Amino acid sequence: MDSQNWKHSLLYLTFLLAILHITHNHFAHKLFFGNETVRIKKNPNLPLRFRSDGTFKILQVADMHYGSGSITRCRDVLASQFQFCSDLNTTRFLKRIIQAENPDFIAFTGDNIFGTSAPDAAESLFKAFGPAMESGLPWAAVLGNHDQESTMDREELMSLISLMDYSVSQINPSYDLSNPSKGGVITKIDGFGNYNLRVYGAPGSMLANSTVLNLFFLDSGDRAVYQGIRTYGWIKESQLDWLRGVSQEFQGQKQDPLYPTSAISTMKPPALAFFHIPIPEIPQLFYKEIIGQFQEAVACSRVNSGVLRTFVSMGDVKAVFIGHDHTNDFCGNLEGIWFCYGGGFGYHGYGKSGWPRRARIILAELQKGKKSWMDVQRIMTWKRLDDEKLSKIDEQILWHGR
């Protein structure tokens, strides 16, 4: 290229950069395609981390079953409860609970929309997750067995969810099953919506740059045919392989070099798991001591893929949060791991007349050291009812560290 052409190219490039700069400032983070305006995603403050008071609070929302909005009727509510009841009651409950509990993070555990009542899946998703996006809080979701029954398949749903404002959801992990340490792209994992979110220590603490809590999200599928019989989906071996790989990465994780490692635990940080369909061992809890109510048969898969066995062998999963069975809201312990239902949240999903819709809260608390907040000391949970006082019930400790 001669010097004259080079100068022209440089001037043209400078002109393009100037136009882009002006466009960027003038249109305030908007892109234009034809007559359509597309907003760029708003991202939350990351990474996820504990507060300076040593706490991290999660709101679990199970089974919103959102339909079309104001025209979608409620199910199983008393006539004396509401003059008129629709999806807007679900929206109102979500706004109330966010304001009352002020969580650090929101976890939606599937059946976010009720596909058969949602003529436009994307529109229903935006309405369902609207209060979460308006709050500016980081949030994440997995799919249930009803989400894909509208106009989008499961991959499309998770793709859209991952692009929504303040969502930290992922379609699938970017780990290579054969060698996770290389960070390769995973290609054969089942489902859509398998990912891990790290929660870091309190700001200014010894563990401010370390993961002190992991949040595992798994796609438990929708429906399937097994040995000629229709059944619910299940978590597959490829997902469990990935999960084991992620867990092993945290064994003896590197600590902040500014502090002596002898003062900090080198054990894997505790983890919480979130998915929709309960595992086949959950019915055993009918005969064990539970906290909450066991009011309906467990609708799980006929296939036992070894999820409980995997969690036990990993050693870091302390509690699991599920949905699917709306009138079950109990926590029960299986082999040292607590399994907790969220309880039905949405008004278009089935429920029980006179039994308020509810949400689950999870609170993790750090241990206080001599000079700094340390690792997680305790994990608690309780539920809030959508009644006049947002009644708080069934508070319990799920796990206590050393």
Number of helices: 7
Give the helices and strands as they follow along the chain.
HEEEEHEHHEHEEEEHEEHEEEEEE
Helicity level, as a percent range? 10-25%
Most strands sheet: 8 strands, mixed
- β-strand number: 18
Mean pLDDT: 88
If strands are numbered along the chain, what order do they take across the biggest sheet?
3-7-8-11-13-15-14-12
Shape, please? globular
State which percent range the strand residues make up: 25-35%
- In whole angstroms, the N-to-C terminal distance is 69 Å
Structural class label: alpha/beta
Q: Round the Cα radius of gyration to an integer and report it.
A: 23 Å
Unreliable segments (pLDDT under 50, ≥5 consecutive)? 19-34, 256-264
InterPro entries: Calcineurin-like_PHP, Metallo-depent_PP-like, PAP14/16/28/29
Family: Belongs to the metallophosphoesterase superfamily. Purple acid phosphatase family.
Signal peptide: 1-25
GO cellular component, one term: extracellular region
Task: Give a structural overview.
It is found in: Secreted. Keywords: Glycoprotein, Iron, Metal-binding, Secreted, Signal, Zinc. The N and C termini lie far apart (69 Å). The longest helix has 24 residues, at 3-26. The protein is globular, with a radius of gyration of 23 Å. It is α/β, with parallel strands linked by helices. It has helices at 3-26, 87-101, 121-128, 130-135, 154-163, 237-249, 307-314; strands spanning 30-33, 36-39, 48-49, 55-61, 105-109, 139-142, 195-200, 211-217, 223-226, 229-232, 271-274, 290-291, 317-322, 331-334, 337-341, 358-368, 373-385, 392-400. An eight-stranded mixed beta sheet has the order 3-7-8-11-13-15-14-12, covered by helices on one side. Strands 6-5-4-16-17-18 form a six-stranded mixed beta sheet. Strands 1-2 form a two-stranded antiparallel ribbon. It is 21% helix and 25% strand. Strand 9 and strand 10 (229-232) form a beta hairpin.
